[in-house]
Amino acid sequence: MNTLATGVIFSNIHDSSLHDLTRMRSTAAIPFGCRYRLIDFALSNMVNSGIFDVNIITHNNYHSLMDHIGSGKDWDLARRSGGVRFLPPFITAYANAENSLYTTRLEALESVNYSISSFNSKYVILSDCDVVCNIDLKEVLDKHIESEADATFVVKRIKANPEMAKHSIFIDSDKKGNVTGFTYKPDMFDKEADASLNITVINRSYLQEIVSEAISHHYWSLTRDIYMKDVSRKKYKVFKYKDPVAEFTSFEDYFNVSMDLIKNEKFFNHLFGNPDRPIYTKIRNSAPTYFSKNSYVKDSLIADGCVIEGSVENSILFRGVKVGKDTVVMNSILFQDTFTGENVTLQYVVSDKDVVIRDGVSISGHSTMPVYIEKGRML
User: Fold this and answer.
1) How far is CA 119 from the centre of its chain?
2) Is the pLDDT of residue 15 over 80?
3) Is residue 280 part of a domain?
4) Taking the CB of residue 312, how many other CB atoms lie within 10 A of it?
5) CATH number of the domain that residue 96 is part of
6) Cα dist. 106→8, 9, 212, 224 in Å?
7) How many domains does the chain have?
8) Which domain does 258 fall in, by range?
9) What distance in Å separates the CA atoms of residue 221 and residue 204, rounded to the nearest whole number?
10) Is residue 68 part of a domain?
């Protein structure tokens, strides 16, 4: 157990970017890859690195997230000392001046200032939930301690285009890894650069200083109001992450990254093929998936508990999905307990949980604009 560091995960920061999927859940609770939720990657990265004191800052729509995590036992976080804690907004009456829900990481940290002051560790690891990767955070923490930095930012070298850049923070550094500047969500940015993965190791004392300063001066942005101002007087370092990673800035990104799990063996094996760093999730005891003698399945990821009587190709099926006779599912993602009748055709479709698609229905989207069916709909 790593008592040096405490984990803090932001569960709602990117809800507005994935608004279709976050109407009834937080970003952290979005299903991904057959049986996982997005928060599973951030939680597993911390647990695999020996960090067993994890705090999840919530905003709204966190019932599904609480149900998924429960006591934390599936991540070995059901502990007397440490474990997993939910930090809802308005922990105290003075969390922020207007008692309004936060919209940025800095406002989120302000809203849980009282909890931060009670952390016993010397370091804090901040992480978003919309970054899918399998990273050794212990290596990041060790390098942070060795360099005696105030903050260490995990970055990934990417070829950015203008659309991608609008959602990114780029960090400049010298040959020794010292941060020299920040570029915040630029327009007309089209070149290779180190993009922040929104995973940061920071000294707890410095984090408390930041939050106190932000409350006093009504600061809003952690990057623009704090990091960009402090870059010349604080010691910032970068940790260059070189393995595959995926981020979601839109519903289309979510669809494309999910499809990439099927096609990109290197990406899939990086996430799920490392026995030393497994990705944990809530365990459900389901029957094996049933494939009828007339079923056809190709290039797909299918969870347990499904019933396949039709055709499934290049698709992802979560637990409990039923594909009826003579039904064709192609290039689609069907969330838990989606039911399709007979003679149904689905192409480029994302169906949320508990969707029922009756006999003979045909729904077709496009790779650039997949169709979303909201939770509980009957079509």
Assistant:
1) 24
2) no
3) no
4) 27
5) 3.90.550.10
6) 12, 13, 11, 10
7) 2
8) 5-272
9) 18
10) yes
